[in-house]
Amino acid sequence: MKKIFKYMMTAALAAAAAAPLSACGGNEPDYCDYISELRHEIYLYEDDDIGIQVHLSSRETPYLTDGYKGEMGEICEIFVKFSQNIDGVTAKIGQSGGEMNYMSVTDSYYLSFTAGETGDSVQVTLTYGGADRNFDLPSALYEGVIAPETALECVRQYDADTFAALTEGKNFKGEIYVRLLADGGKCYYYVGVTDRDGNTRAYLVDGESGNIIAEREHDAR
């Protein structure tokens, strides 16, 4: 995570995290209406031989970084990484699943499908080497983690100028990404704001305090 962002420490925004969510109402646009990706749950499992992650998100289809929010749908993503070479892996959660795709860049397997209902944990069935193996993945969320909408409000208060520049009356000329992250037993949020030219300003938010602990810009050009 440290390699992804250039760290820029900021003043605490704990008060913002506890404040009313003006990002999702009031006289300004309802910024939550412009979220085109909302990752709200992560499940994790890891041992010496395998690492598994399950992400649950609401995401636009088609998935485009163009500053416009598309039609939303629920998606479940499974990521699997083995400590040794494995050929041919299928994954299933409940009745949904299929053959996983190998991604050479990350040396891992990936599968996505329409998300179903889940709870505090999820069971993933992996089939490889001629055998089925079941894994119970607990949620990465814990007491004290702020809501995704609160993370967005913390970013809005931290960088009001960026939001103001894209706001015209009750309309917001852009799209917003809010993704739950989990690393080292702690939760974070990625919040990205993309304008109509495809330029993105991204923030890493502490999942408990709401502090903005990193930021960067990506120019579409």
Question: What is the annotated CATH architecture of the largest domain?
Answer: Roll
Tell me the strand percentage band: over 45%
Secondary structure: helix percent: under 10%
Major β-sheet strand ordering:
6-7-3-2-1-12-13-14-15
| Total domain count | 2
List how many beta strands DSSP finds.
Answer: 15
- Count of DSSP helices? 3
**Spatial extent as radius of gyration:** 19 Å
- Uncertain spans: 1-21
- Kindly state the mean pLDDT as a whole number? 89
The CATH topology of the largest domain comes to Nuclear Transport Factor 2, Chain: A
Give the distance, in angstroms, between the N- and C-terminal Cα atoms.
25 Å
Write down the CATH class of the largest domain.
Answer: Alpha Beta
H/E element sequence: HEEEEEEEEEHHEEEEEE
What shape does the CA trace take? elongated
What class do helices, strands and sheet pairing give?
A: mainly beta
User: Mind summarizing the main beta sheet?
Assistant: 9 strands, mixed
